[in-house]
Design brief:
The structure holds two protein chains of two kinds. By secondary structure, chain A is an alpha+beta fold. Chain A contains four helices and seven strands; from the N terminus they run H-E-H-E-E-E-E-E-E-H-H. In chain A, 31% of the residues lie in helices and 26% in strands. The longest helix of chain A is centred in the N-terminal third of the chain and has 30 residues. In chain B, strands 3, 4, 5, 6, 7 and 8 form a six-stranded antiparallel β-sheet that branches. The termini of chain B are far apart. The chains are: A alpha+beta, B alpha+beta. Strand 1 of chain A pairs antiparallel with strand 1 of chain B.
Amino acid sequence: MTKKQKRTSYILGGLLLLGAIVSLMLFALSENIAYFNSPSDIVEKGAVPGERIRLGGMVAEDSVKRGEDALITFDVTDFAETVSVTYRGLVPDLFREGQGVIVEGAFNNSNLFIADTVLAKHDENYTPPEVTDALKRAGDWQGEGDAKGVSHDKKYGEGSYP
Amino acid sequence: MIAETGHFALILALALAFIQTVLPFLGAQWNDPRLMATGRPAAQGQFVLVLISFLALGAAFVTSDFSVATVAANSHTDKPMIFKIAGVWGNHEGSMLLWVLILSLFGAAVATFGRNLPDTLKARVLSVQGSISIAFLLFMLLSSNPFTRLFPAPFDGNGLNPILQDPALAFHPPFLYAGYVGFSMAFSFAVAALLEGRVDPAWARWVRPWTLAAWCSLTLGIAMGSWWAYYELGWGGWWFWDPVENASFMPWLLGTALLHSAIVVEKRGALKSWTILLAIFAFSLSLVGTFLVRSGVLTSVHAFAVDPERGLIILGILVLFIGGSLGLYAWRAPALKGGGLFAPISREGALLVNNLILATGALTVFVGTLYPLLLDALDGPKISVGPGFFNMTFVPLMVPLLFLVPFGPMLSWKRADIAAAAQRLSVAAGVSIFTLALVFYLRSDGPWMAPFAMALAVWIIIGAVSEISWRIRLFRGPFKDAWQRAKHLPRSAWGSAIAHAGVGVMVAGIVGISAWREEVVTALPVGESFRIEQYELRFDGVETHEGPNFTAQTAQVTVFTPEGEQVAVMTPEKRTYTVSQMPTTEAAIRTRWIEDLYIVLGDEDGTGSWVMRAYVNPIVPWIWIGAVIMTFGGMVSLSDRRLRVGAPKAAKGRVGKNSKAGAHP
């Protein structure tokens, strides 16, 4: 092979490799993406069983119930609509009623949302940006554009949960 | 008064950073030695001033001066002293001050020890380093001043986030930042080389120790973070492919690539512009990492509350430095003379493959981490990319890289004999095939790939041992001769073999926990038992007790073997910190070298039963042991004479005594 042919074959090989990597990434993305939904989105679009989604909002007051064998159910709300969630396992330390939460999982055939992940956070004052956004869209947000979650109680007073 | 001193010192440091950026740069352009000489005192002075500022903030934390807003927001009088000190960088303002402190320390180190650098190169390096300082000092003074006063001062502080009150995490940020900022040296050298229009083997020799030091810190920093996440968060995992984790992993991948490509520049004068590009990208990704963590644009499991305005400023700094350096690269890189093509089967060919795979790996992590952000910025749907993405792209990419690791050091420069290299690895191959069979026999329960992955880990470890034994001709003559050769083997050869062995140890740990982890979640009343793997766990009850700044509910769990023999009493805990009323989980972990038993206490379910989660994680401690071995390898390599900062000349004579192949890298 001449030097020029060699160079061409290197470049071709490189492009082939790049193409393979890009297609692998696209395939992997299509397999592993979860769309974020607020409870309003879900009510609007209807639940699609088996489709993996992220659901975010506030954990509704008085909705957390613990059942047999480490089962826990709670409602996720954006103060317009509410979706009931079932999860088996330990919830994160900062999971509590009236706090922002993101869960990941899918609806089962009887339209129950089964979460396999409940996202934790490390900081009292942190509300995930998606949740802030979803609450803003549902018209129940009083933050000043910063990431600090203002709880519903602060807006309407203690115990005024709709 | 102390806080004002710190603030004032920071402003003075900014002024010196301006001087450090402008004067040496002009000096290098006009070839004026007096102007170039200003870089040294400016860099040293800047470090002293930032150090004063850092100590002032430290004093405010140690004395609990709550009239300083940062202290009031992040400290508390009840906090143990070590966490008061760690609290200095356990918050946004303080951590940025630490960032700048390390930056100016590195700048001062080049100014002080870089005596053998050509004047113009040194002046330009200091100038670029100074410009980074300007950006971050301005950022601090304008949007995150650590010395802002509160009036009236509160009676007591808010306390540090309890999960950060942990020894491993106290030292995680300094190491991580030393790594991030260490790549700024490689970046400054790269930009300076572009300005000079010249890259030569000497340049690579100056860049390598900085890159190596940064890499060691970053490796240790990431390992500490992962270890902390493992035992503190109570999820029993060590890596979640979370954006904040990926943010530190991307610079690590490119830093590792840079470490290897700089060898090719030094030894063969090839891969020059690629190495420059890697240096630019490694630091750019460090900036991206800082941006991702500090701006709050991502939903991360490790997210902390942040102020979006700060994110915008960091984004501005990011665009300025990445755009500027890439623009300069596009303009000047064609002027760099390439080293030509080389044979694919050779040391440099192997290092190139290493670079291609690591860079592609970094690309996949980058896409998976930033794709959701990109979609969001384009007003697309809000999405998240799951760990599955990384397992499908990054992990398969690493398999060929890991397989090739033992080959690289066995190949000679220019043109190598692959058959001879394979022959030298025959022992390693034999041991790994034996491992494959043994693991298949012992653990048939995991995925079919697991025994192969385990054999791969052993292949890397034994491969590294084979490399050393081949270099010192162990068993091929009197042992005394081999010992003599071992003593004269360059430190860099030892270092790379140790680091590669560390990779193998880490891979073994990763395979262990990924393939054979056992998990049981249960709710059980006091006195009941449950079973996980070979263990019988009896729940003896929960007691409440008081800690220094928290109240704890401690469960007692007695561990039995199937024969009923008691092996341990474990005490998983839930704590509520008094000041913040924040609950945390303290997992109980019983570590043996080959497996961890891991118990987490959950809530009481209302009927007197407690939720409990237990894991058996095989081989998991090896992950962090491997990281420590890798870091140690890096440090051994760093102590090589040729790389020693300020060493006058490369010591070539000592290497030549061994066989030709002994002249590793």
